[in-house]
Design goal:
Layout: E1 2-6, H1 10-28, E2 33-37, H2 43-51, E3 60-65, H3 67-76, E4 84-89, H4 95-100, H5 106-114, E5 118-122, E6 125-129, E7 132-136, E8 139-143, H6 144-154, H7 156-163, H8 170-179, E9 185-191, E10 195-208, E11 212-213, E12 217-218, E13 230-236, H9 240-251, E14 261-266, E15 269-281, E16 284-296, E17 301-305
Parallel strand pairs: 1-2, 1-3, 3-4, 4-17
Antiparallel strand pairs: 5-17, 6-7, 6-16, 8-10, 8-15, 9-10, 9-15, 10-13, 11-12, 13-14, 15-16
């Protein structure tokens, strides 16, 4: 049985159209399914929590939406290790799909979902801030990158670019806009309870479970989502013009040699900033804070992949 959670408003209403295409394929192939549409922010989390009580290891939880919908779903699951997740991406950035190898083309993604060749087990990260926890599948971050994600959630530019099928450029345009007013701050990183690193004038620190965030920026090319290791990027002590040059090189993962780009690997990390910054999990705004702790949860999630 397929249980669908569909965000009909994803990609400026494209989600509903893609569900229609998926529905026709389900009917043609006589596949049993149930479907629920999200009606407000946070609804996918509630639906996933409810489905956790009835899903068996033989069922597939299918999501049609963007990275934000995926993030809500994983935060609603009670028993991720017993769930098989299928996904048809309809977001602007689609970093989750990119990271696990799911095609972003609708027809190919639907066929992969309905005829799964294999299941890949991926890690889920967890941030903890003031006793509150939130899971992520792609990445989390503190600083400039999170500020970009926050503005992208409500930016009218995103709707325009989505209409032109250029939604992934939203993050690049907002980054350029925000860069000139952004104020960097010193940060302290504590990795695996042992290594302590002090960095000056940090723009952002991102903890990556997969290589991509922000609509395809390959910040950590070597990140793997099933190795129980985070790849961490910190951008520090650079003039703003050089940060601007970082974006095109980072899109292709060719930035790691640039002085001021720091890459670390760890199983857990504690970040403390002298200044409060926005925090994101999978591009979703998670408040404004000056410190956070990041680790893995024990359970892994089964995802249908090529």
């Amino acid at each position: 049985m397929y249980y669908f959670i569909v965000n009909p408003k994803s990609r400026t209403g494209k989600g509903l159209e893609i569900w229609g295409q998926t529905h026709r394929c389900l009917r043609q192939e006589k596949i049993a399914f149930q479907c629920a549409f999200t009606k407000y922010r946070g609804h996918a989390k509630k639906l996933a929590c409810q489905l956790s009580d009835i899903l068996t290891t033989e069922d597939i939880l299918a999501v049609i939406g963007g990275d934000g919908t995926i993030n809500e779903v994983i935060n609603g699951l009670k028993n991720p290790s017993n769930i098989t997740l299928g996904y048809v991406p309809t977001g602007s950035g689609n970093d989750f799909a990119r990271g696990v190898g799911i095609p972003t083309g609708t027809s190919a993604a639907i066929q992969l979902l309905l005829h799964p060749p294999r299941r890949q087990r991926i890690d889920l990260g967890c941030i903890q801030i003031d006793q509150k926890k939130r899971l992520f599948a792609v990445s989390c971050g503190l600083g400039f990158d999170a500020g970009i994600c926050y503005e992208a959630l409500t930016s009218p530019m995103k709707k325009v670019l989505n209409t032109l099928r250029l939604g992934k450029l939203t993050y690049a345009f907002i980054a350029i806009k925000q860069l000139f007013s952004f104020q960097s701050a010193d940060m302290e990183l504590k990795l695996d309870d042992s290594r302590q690193i002090a960095l000056k004038n940090v723009y952002f620190t991102a903890v990556m479970n997969q290589p991509y965030e922000g609509g395809g920026f390959c910040f950590c090319p070597d990140a793997r989502n099933g190795d129980r290791i985070f790849d961490v990027i910190a951008v520090a002590n650079l003039p703003k013009w050089k940060v601007l040059l970082l974006f095109p090189t980072a899109y292709f993962g060719k930035h790691t040699h640039i002085r001021g780009i720091h890459i670390f690997r760890c199983r857990q990390i504690y970040i403390k900033s002298q200044r409060k910054y926005p925090v994101h999990t999978d591009g979703e705004f998670s408040g404004v804070h000056h410190k956070l702790a990041v680790s893995f949860i024990d359970a892994q999630l089964n995802v249908i992949t090529p």
